[in-house]
Design goal:
The protein is of the alpha+beta class. Helix content is 17%, strand content 43%. It contains one helix and eleven strands, in the order H-E-E-E-E-E-E-E-E-E-E-E. Bound molecules: dinuclear copper ion. The site of dinuclear copper ion has 9 residues, from loops.
């Protein structure tokens, strides 16, 4: 029988407790809080994406009642999101497709689980169901230059 030092037993026990705690934390965030990872939907050319459908006309497309797709371009100099305003009825599910024409940006919609990195050359995709009436501002969440703080817009959820 090998002898395990008392302190070593404590460390082994602590490791098991931490594994259980982290697994529980990940499970709660994934299943209870609905945190989802944005998926890289497509590879695109950032130089021509603003002229390429559907990003040549950024904005909302209705797929069926209450189901939408939103195509959004992030841009530096001038620092903006196109479009800067999206309007839907309460209960609508919007799938966001966001890409950058230049540098790395972020896309975060406050009070939702939508928060993703926006890279030139890639379309990032994430869906959200807006089940509360109100305004949900979105903003760039990654520093992208001197006009970073000017990159914002809002989702208006109407009754
Ligand atoms: Cu775009 Cu910060």
């Amino acid at each position: 029988m090998i002898h395990v030092h008392t302190y070593e037993k404590w460390w082994i026990a602590l490791t098991i407790v931490m594994l259980v705690a982290f697994t529980a934390a990940i499970s709660v965030s994934a299943f209870a809080n609905g945190i989802q990872l944005p998926s890289p939907e497509a590879r695109v050319d950032p130089k021509t994406i603003a002229q390429t459908p559907p990003f040549d006309k950024p904005g909302l497309r209705e797929l069926s009642p209450g189901k939408y797709e939103a195509y959004i371009l992030a841009q530096a100099s001038p620092w903006k999101f196109y479009p800067a305003e999206i309007r839907v009825k309460v209960g609508s599910t919007v799938t966001f497709y966001v890409t950058s024409v230049d540098v790395q940006h972020g896309f975060k919609i406050f009070d939702t689980n939508v928060n993703m990195q926006i890279l030139p050359g890639q379309v990032s995709k994430l869906a959200h169901t807006f089940d509360k009436v109100g305004e949900f501002p979105y903003a760039c969440a990654e520093y992208c230059g001197v006009g970073h703080q000017n990159m914002f817009g809002k989702v208006i959820v109407e009754p």
